[in-house]
Design brief:
about 250 residues, about 0% strand
Length: about 250
């Protein structure tokens, strides 16, 4: 189903699956040109371990956007997943809970392509590929668990409350600017920096940048807490979905 989801998205287009590669390449090129050449954004040395050059901000921005897009794609689609697959609701033996997993698998495919583009970009500009990049799957896993847990909850609520999709899009837009995507967390004053970490996207974005760009291992203590939180959300989301599934057929 994940394979069909990916192929269907690009079916009929001239370049087909090549768009999965073209899109991140174009976006990274635009970020590098706009923020590096036009606005000439530079990071303060005390706020970044990156080289203070025209590519530093683009790398930070692109890394944050990759993770936000994974989160955003799954949650924006979640409220309509059941509504878009009503035929499956009538089939008692079909496990409806895999529909958010299919959406997640498709998003992870595009995330993987974007990371490959980022790694290739690092090699082209001469930035070292740090050995700490091996920790990236460990850093991403709690975000995956957290995302699928919320997807189960939203997919269920979307059956009963159709307006939830509009609300989620609004919240995602707010999170785009309330997450350390267009800036590193270290750029904020200490008085408000702690509040930024109440955003569930902040820890994973910061730690992904640490293992990819800074050559630093993850902060294991905060990562362990994030795992516990993500596991709780995933378990709660699946339990909620299974409990409310009984009412899907009556509503639809």
């Amino acid at each position: 189903m994940i394979k069909r989801e990916i192929i269907t998205r690009y079916r009929g287009s001239f370049l087909g699956l090549l768009w999965t590669l073209i899109n991140p390449v174009l976006m990274l090129s635009i970020y590098t040109f706009v923020f590096g050449a036009v606005f000439k954004v530079r990071l303060e040395p005390q706020n970044s371990h990156l080289y203070d050059d025209q590519f530093a901000f683009a790398m930070l921005l692109f890394t944050g956007l990759i993770l936000f897009n994974l989160f955003s794609e799954c949650l924006s689609r979640a409220p309509g997943l059941i509504l878009a697959n009503i035929n499956y609701v009538k089939k008692v033996i079909f496990p409806l809970e895999i529909l958010p997993l299919v959406s997640l698998g498709s998003a992870l495919f595009h995330t993987g392509i974007s990371f490959l583009v980022l790694f290739a970009f690092l090699l082209i500009i001469g930035h070292p590929i740090e050995w700490t990049i091996l920790f990236l799957p460990i850093v991403l896993l709690p975000l995956v668990l957290f995302t699928v847990g919320l997807s189960w909850i939203l997919a269920s609520i979307g059956v009963f409350v159709r307006d939830i999709g509009q609300l989620i899009n609004l919240i995602l837009t707010m999170l785009l600017f309330l997450s350390p995507i267009f800036y590193p967390a270290s750029a904020l004053p200490e008085s408000i920096r702690d509040y930024l970490f109440l955003n569930p996207l902040t820890p994973v974005i910061e730690q992904a940048r640490a293992v990819i760009l800074y050559g630093q291992p993850p902060d294991w203590s905060s990562l362990a807490l994030y795992y516990l939180f993500a596991l709780f959300i995933a378990w709660s989301g699946l339990a909620w979905f299974k409990k409310t599934r009984k009412g899907f057929a009556d509503v639809l």
